């Protein structure tokens, strides 16, 4: 009989005793189970004992989690959580330092268990931990165990972080700010502060005031990877809890201290591999930094703002300074306005009489204006070349700088998730972000030149604007996915990914989507090929049996005579002979000439054929060369020369003759037909797998069982 579902077979161990193998009835109270176990080992006071997992986190078994016990689990009979909590509570108050250290070490281990933690906290155990930290002077192993136990106990959320005393917090801060402290103590202290920061504004202000950014930067520069990680965690916690103004000030200060360059050199490119946790913190730092652009991105241009109008005018003046600076002063207001409108149109603004209207859309808002101004000031040559090159093109082929810049800024904001909240798990940061201070602006400078390059490659007109920007978006996202380590490398790769490459990649991906390039499908293709090639061979031979009408070409290249050739139904003889005009399919008996297939020696094509050896020029000769083929037969002195009426017939006949000669079919038509047949056959075979992703590798075959004694014996049930 199979065992009941509410019974699990487990082993129970105890130091110095032979293990028990029992059937644990899940419906039976845990106290009764413990009593039975203790009775088997002749142990009194069963209420003082508990069961605990041997492996993993060594969790205590309770009525609430006993359902998680699986068949084959190994448990340990140990002291109950309340007894252990009482013992350790006394131990951490001992005057004997060894006993106290051992008790704190044990406490740090057991505090991971929620049942034990509840018992220890209920005995006011945290108060004793606070006392050890606040009053103690130890900065070594004992303190590390104390802080570890505190962290584990606080993880269960029985006590609020806001209840911590000022003296305790001050002590924790002092461990972070001290130099002569054990690294493990500093790591734990940083973790405690990190957990405190998000819980209340009061704690955030306290930590921000006491632990300076300079101190955190000092911890980031150590070689201890764990200490570096905890320092980064606290820095990120402070940035996330700060207000927008505070965050901006903090990021400005970090920029002054060259934190990006340090991270790029010492963390991203360190000899140690980057862990998932550090990758997440770098992603958050990148996200927080990029989100500083959000305010400008969501702010529309104010046409009455003197500062914003001056920025807009600077774009025009930088591009057309030589043209407009001297004569403009002599123009009337109306003429000057007309000249400005013309220049703004050349800059690519849609509303050239009032270009501020183009920047009223938010996003990208003023961020687009900032990017254009940055491009014009930091790369003036590239800016002037872009504007002047396009203003001198035909109207329909000019790439509008301003319109492109506004749309490109929006695209970059979407790709880089500007203004979006940070993910709690994401790790997708860009290494090149940390190698450049003005990352967003510099990226824009590269990408706006890419827009112009792609525009020319696509020979685009104004109607193609959206299509060009769609291609540019694809170029950027594909290059970013390669995680280039610097903007220079990004620039090289994105420029190499031209429009023709994008088209090739799209075609490849389309094939992937149809799953024609999946490894199992490719294997299936290879298996189907022989069968389908045989089908093509049969079709070629069938076509030869039906025969084709050819024209004879004289030495003067006059196509004045017709002849017909066909293969006998048994594929052994090639019949041919002259026919009159208008005869479509003469009977095989009327074709008097014969060539046994067994006498055929070779197939010649193109220039190798005897009837193409004579020199001739012009289009006709070229056409004859492409359609000519010959059969060499008997003693290799005789040839039957053909000029196919079409390329299609040429392919079918050369393939068919190669089949008769026992050779591979080599025409381009063979590959085309094979691809069509394979595609159709694959689609038919994969119909049942529609919308199901096919893995590249088959699932692993499970190991055979250790024994095969799992068959149910029905003979016992019948008795």
UniProtKB/TrEMBL annotation:
Membrane-spanning intervals of the chain: none
Highest taxon of the lineage: Eukaryota
Known role: Involved in cytoskeletal rearrangements required for phagocytosis of apoptotic cells and cell motility. Acts in association with DOCK1 and CRK. Was initially proposed to be required in complex with DOCK1 to activate Rac Rho small GTPases. May enhance the guanine nucleotide exchange factor (GEF) activity of DOCK1.
Database matches in Pfam families: ELMO_ARM (PF11841), ELMO_CED12 (PF04727), PH_12 (PF16457)
Keywords: Apoptosis, Phagocytosis, SH3-binding
Stated name of the protein: ELMO3 protein
Single GO MF descriptor: SH3 domain binding
InterPro entries in alphabetical order: ARM-like, ARM-type_fold, ELMO_ARM, ELMO_dom, ELMO_domain-containing, PH-like_dom_sf, PH_domain
Ranges for domain ELMO: 307-480
One biological process term in Gene Ontology: apoptotic process
Organism: Nyctibius grandis (Great potoo)
């Amino acid at each position: 009989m199979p065992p009941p579902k509410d019974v699990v077979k487990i082993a129970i161990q105890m130091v110095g005793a032979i293990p028990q193998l029992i059937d644990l009835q899940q419906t039976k109270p845990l106290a009764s189970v413990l009593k039975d176990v203790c009775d088997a080992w002749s142990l009194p006071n069963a209420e003082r004992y508990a069961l605990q997992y041997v492996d993993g986190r060594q969790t205590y078994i309770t009525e609430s989690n006993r359902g998680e016990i699986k068949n084959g689990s190994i448990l340990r009979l140990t002291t109950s959580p309340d007894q252990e909590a009482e013992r350790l509570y006394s131990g951490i108050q001992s005057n004997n330092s060894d006993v106290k250290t051992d008790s704190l070490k044990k406490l740090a281990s057991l505090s991971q268990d929620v049942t034990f933690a509840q018992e220890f906290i209920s005995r006011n155990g945290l108060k004793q931990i606070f006392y050890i930290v606040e009053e103690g002077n130890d900065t070594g192993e004992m303190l590390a165990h104390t802080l570890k136990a505190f962290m584990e106990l606080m993880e269960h959320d029985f006590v609020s972080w806001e209840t911590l005393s000022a003296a305790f917090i001050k002590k924790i801060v002092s461990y972070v700010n001290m130099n002569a402290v054990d690294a493990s103590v500093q790591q734990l202290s940083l973790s405690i502060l990190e957990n405190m920061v998000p819980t209340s504004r009061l704690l955030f202000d306290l930590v921000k005031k006491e632990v300076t950014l300079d101190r955190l930067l000092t911890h980031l520069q150590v070689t201890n990877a764990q200490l570096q990680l905890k320092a980064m965690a606290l820095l990120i916690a402070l940035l996330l809890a700060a207000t927008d103004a505070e965050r901006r000030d903090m990021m400005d200060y970090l920029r002054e201290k060259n934190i990006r360059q340090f991270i790029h050199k010492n963390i991203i490119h360190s000899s140690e591999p980057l862990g998932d946790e550090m990758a997440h913190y770098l992603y958050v730092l990148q996200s927080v930094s990029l989100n500083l652009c959000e305010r400008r991105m969501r702010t529309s241009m104010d046409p009455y703002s003197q500062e914003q109008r001056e920025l807009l005018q600077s774009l025009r003046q930088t591009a057309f300074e030589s043209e407009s600076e001297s004569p403009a002063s002599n123009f009337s207001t109306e003429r000057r306005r007309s000249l400005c409108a013309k220049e703004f149109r050349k800059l690519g603004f849609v509303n050239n009489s009032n270009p501020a209207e183009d920047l009223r859309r938010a996003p990208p808002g003023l961020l687009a204006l900032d990017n254009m101004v940055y491009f014009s000031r930091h790369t003036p040559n590239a800016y002037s070349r872009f504007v002047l090159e396009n203003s001198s093109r035909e109207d329909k082929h000019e790439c509008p700088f301003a319109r492109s810049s506004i749309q490109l800024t929006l695209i970059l904001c979407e790709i880089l998730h500007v203004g979006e909240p940070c993910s709690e798990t994401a790790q997708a940061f860009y290494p090149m972000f940390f190698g450049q201070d003005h990352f967003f602006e510099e990226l824009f400078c590269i990408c706006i030149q890419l827009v112009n390059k792609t525009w020319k490659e696509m020979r685009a007109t104004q109607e193609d604007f959206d299509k060009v920007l769609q291609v540019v978006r694809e170029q950027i996202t594909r290059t970013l996915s390669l995680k280039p380590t610097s903007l220079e490398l990004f620039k090289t790769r994105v420029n190499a990914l031209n429009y023709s490459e994008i088209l090739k990649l799209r075609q490849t991906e389309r094939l992937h989507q149809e799953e024609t390039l999946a490894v199992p499908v490719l294997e299936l293709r290879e298996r189907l090929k022989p069968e389908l090639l045989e089908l093509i061979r049969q079709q070629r031979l069938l076509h030869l049996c039906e025969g084709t009408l050819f024209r004879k070409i004289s030495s003067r290249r006059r196509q004045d005579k017709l002849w017909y050739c066909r293969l006998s139904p048994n594929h052994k003889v090639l019949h041919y002979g002259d026919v009159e005009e208008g005869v479509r399919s003469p009977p095989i008996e009327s074709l008097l000439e014969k060539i046994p297939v067994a006498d055929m020696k070779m197939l010649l094509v193109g220039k190798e054929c005897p009837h193409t050896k004579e020199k001739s020029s012009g289009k006709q000769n070229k056409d004859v060369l492409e359609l000519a083929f010959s059969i060499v037969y008997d003693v290799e002195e005789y040839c039957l020369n053909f000029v196919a009426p079409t390329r299609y017939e040429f392919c079918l006949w050369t393939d068919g003759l190669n089949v008769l000669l026992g050779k591979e079919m080599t025409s381009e038509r063979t590959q085309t037909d094979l691809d069509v047949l394979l595609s159709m056959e694959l689609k038919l075979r994969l119909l049942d797998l529609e919308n199901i992703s096919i893995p590249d590798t088959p699932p692993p075959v499970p190991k055979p069982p250790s024994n095969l004694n799992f068959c149910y014996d029905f003979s016992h049930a019948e008795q």
